[in-house]
Amino acid sequence: MKYDHLVVGAGLYGSILAYRAHKAGKKVLVIEKRPHVGGNLYCEEIEGIQVHKYGPHIFHTSNKEVWDFVNSLVPFNHFRYCPLAYYEGTLYHLPFNMNTFYELWGTKTPEEAKAKINEQRSEIKGEPKNLEEQAISLVGREVYEKLIKCYTEKQWGRDCKDLPPFIIQRLPVRYCYNNNYFNDCFQGIPIGGYNKIFDALLDGIEVRTSCNFFDNRAEYEGLADKIIYCGPIDEYFDFKYGYLEYRSLRFEEEVLDKDSFQGNIAVNYTDHAHPYTRIVEHKYFEFGTQPKTVITKEYSQEWKSGMEPYYPVNDERNSAVYEKYKADADKLKNVMFCGRLAEYKYYDMHKIVELALAKEV
């Protein structure tokens, strides 16, 4: 059977493009190498709780068109992401705001907090040469030591002095008592979990899961006039310029026989005593009152071939390799490279929706 479009990857980008092509009357086939659709947004119901299997995802945007589109698929709730940080036995509010500064120094006014931070920032002279100097120049030594240093080193597997400053060039610092992590007008979680989005997007479209494009590449390429490719760009070109590097994640999930474990959606562990970067308690995404709770400990790790790639390492070497692949990709007229892996770029969900709605299909 011949198709107008073959979509490789049933994550958010690929699924929206498949949805739009289908609405336009095109014949679409979606293939996905995982046993489920939804990409990293996939949820599994455990003890009546929607568990985010690939880490927490909070939808936030200030683009009304994007918000209206996702809500046309499934209604969203009013969830707000207000994580905490745990450092050597003490909890601090995130993102950095007046609550955090009060917990650190007992400062009660913005003027007092600014004076404290400015005093500590002054130790950095000239242009910051690495992530450590960049962070201190933005928020001072104490916030860096307690709430940034260890967490970042666990995330990247490298000393902050060996990381480039651009990774942390913009740190949210608020001189008000506001724990809402995001500033966007519209925020929330789809009621009943993210799977409902994909049920709506892929309704009426032929989808094949547990199908790896590269296992039968010639056959799949012959099935459609146009390919929407959402997989790793280096794999598409047989790694001819070398592998692109990523950071990966490992998750340890536990079902606990209690109604609450930590009383909050997420606690970031910013000390080296805890090997994981954070613990997520999933019931708080939908204000759950279930008798049990499900938590996930999240560990950052170096990516190796065969592992799930999460965060592109956009350093000089990887960026140069990606540009070679992109030059080859730009020459292909019947293949569209879309999304985090195909563009070697980290995207927030709202940006993916915005781009997918603007693409010509």
Query: Which descriptor suits the 3D outline?
Result: globular
Question: Approximately how much beta-strand content do the residues carry?
Answer: 15-25%
Spatial gap, N to C terminus? 20 Å
Poorly predicted regions: none
The helix-and-strand class reads: alpha/beta
Biggest β-sheet strands, sense, barrel: 7 strands, mixed
* Counted beta strands: 16
**Nearest-integer average pLDDT:** 96
Description:
It contains eleven helices and 16 strands. It is α/β, with parallel strands linked by helices and 361 residues long. A seven-stranded mixed β-sheet has the order 7-6-12-13-14-11-15. It has a five-stranded parallel β-sheet with strand order 9-2-1-10-16, covered by helices on one side. Strand 1, helix 1 and strand 2 (28-32) form a beta-alpha-beta unit. Helix 1 (12-23) runs parallel beside helix 11 (349-358), helix 4 (110-121) runs antiparallel to helix 5 and helix 5 runs antiparallel to helix 6. The two termini are 20 Å apart. The model has no long low-confidence stretch (mean pLDDT 96).
How would the blueprint of this fold be written?
Blueprint: E1 3-8, H1 12-23, E2 28-32, E3 43-46, E4 49-52, E5 59-61, H2 64-73, E6 84-87, E7 90-93, H3 98-105, H4 110-121, H5 131-139, H6 141-156, E8 186-188, H7 195-201, E9 206-209, H8 217-221, E10 224-229, H9 233-236, E11 246-256, E12 266-269, E13 278-281, E14 293-302, E15 311-312, H10 316-330, E16 335-337, H11 349-358
Parallel strand pairs: 1-2, 1-10, 2-9, 6-12, 10-16
Antiparallel strand pairs: 3-4, 5-8, 6-7, 11-14, 11-15, 12-13, 13-14
Helix pairs in contact: 1-11, 2-11, 4-5, 5-6
